[in-house]
Amino acid sequence: MNISEYFSKMRGGAKSPPGVGLSEMLWSWLGAMIGIGICGYLSAKYFEPRDLTLIIGSFGASAVLVYGAIKSPLAQPRNLIGGHIISGFVGVACYQLFGDVIWMAAALGVSLAIVAMLATKTVHPPGGATALIAVIGGKKIHDLGFLYVLLPAGAGALILLIVALLVNNLSKNRKYPEYWL
Description:
Helix content is 67%, strand content 0%. It is built from 8 helices and no strands. α3 (58-68) packs parallel to α8.
């Protein structure tokens, strides 16, 4: 491939996806409001007083997928739960092995999380952030060690999933999930 062919690939060419209606926006808002709200409330009320957390930044991106892009393969339960748990494990392991060189731990955490999600068919883009948070999240996150994999990564993702199952199926025009495994 020559240089002009390489750069011509960056022009795209596919048609932009259609917009969504107000109803779809409202259902997406409701699911995200409830899912993130529950994680945040439980975190503030019960977990943070015990130096734990139930909410991490990557859940914001998960909410976009499981409430706003419910048909996407990246939003399905296997990907949501598996992506966060696998990536959390990889991120913690990379921090524990390479945390004295934070940039290396971060790069390895995210890149190996991607490979692990691809290998296990659990690709969930917010999982990359879950791995990165395990590395750069600070003392409170580092002190969790491998507990981070279950709490907040696994438990928070499970709450988002339960809310997605309940809210996404209230509308006659929405169905979630497309598949489980």
